[in-house]
Design brief:
The complex is a heterodimer of chains A (115) and B (112). Chain A is mostly beta strands and 115 residues long. Chain A contains no helices and eleven strands. Chain B is built from no helices and eleven strands. In chain B, the strands form two sheets. In chain B, strands 2, 4, 5, 6, 9, 10 and 11 form a seven-stranded mixed beta sheet that branches. Chain B has a four-stranded antiparallel beta sheet with strand order 1-3-8-7, with no helix packed on it. The chains are: A mainly beta (115), B mainly beta (112).
Chain lengths: 115, 112
């Protein structure tokens, strides 16, 4: 069974940093693209970033370019999202998802940016 | 960026009746491999999204056959043949053809 478990969310002040993790199991992580998607409270879904199987290709939505970095550790079956220079507008539940086309999702982790 | 436009945004439906959601993209979603990268997701209240349909019309394993997807190019439709209580939630289309991937605004399906 595919499982994706996000962690690392919490309350952070504007300008601060946070690192999200996603532990994957139940599939061959090292041969899967992985993605991050976020959902602000009461709002719709926004794709954030993708990374290819070996980490050599990364894509980001414009609003996080230069502030967020997606990465992975295939030996640990883990996906990461390093978030720097956080803004109030980054407040959201962050989901990790398998594949370019998001065929499995985790339960999400809440990031709140507030002073 | 590719704009995905869904309609309606709210869809009250009687149990057992059909429902239809439209999704239009501002650019063609056909890729050079011949596939059209249009997905549909369901988000039930309090749950994570799950993919129902990929490449326009392919149902995920375990998705009831009352759900169907159709369309081509820039115009797509998700249909529920007979709405059940468990279908309540928000439905999103998403294009996975042009970076950045983009979602529609979401259509809230509720029971009348």
């Amino acid at each position: 069974e595919v499982q994706l478990v996000e962690s690392g969310g919490g309350l952070v002040q504007p300008g601060g940093s946070l690192r999200l993790s996603c532990a994957a199991s139940g599939f061959t992580f090292s041969t899967s693209w992985m993605s991050w998607v976020r959902q602000a409270p009461g709002k719709g879904l926004e794709w954030v970033a993708n990374i290819n199987e070996d980490g050599s290709e990364k894509y980001y939505v414009d609003s996080v370019k230069g502030r967020f970095t997606i990465s992975r550790d295939n030996a640990k079956n883990s996906l990461y999202l390093q978030m720097n220079s956080l803004r109030a507008g980054d407040t959201a539940v962050y989901y990790c998802a398998r594949g370019q086309q998001l065929n499995y999702w985790g339960q999400g982790t809440l990031v709140t940016v507030s002073s | 960026d590719v704009v995905m436009t869904q309609s309606p945004l709210s869809l009250p439906v009687t149990l057992g009746q059909p429902a239809s959601i439209s999704c239009r993209s501002s650019q063609s979603l056909v890729y050079s491999d011949g596939n059209t990268y249009l997905n549909w997701f369901q988000q039930r209240p309090g749950q994570s999204p799950r993919r129902l349909i990929y490449k326009v019309s392919n149902r995920e394993s375990g998705v009831p056959d009352r759900f169907s997807g159709s369309g081509s190019g820039t115009d797509f439709t998700l249909k529920i043949s007979r709405v059940e209580a468990e279908d309540v939630g928000v439905y999103y289309c998403m294009q996975g053809r042009h970076w950045p991937w983009t979602f529609g605004q979401g259509t809230k399906v509720e029971i009348k």
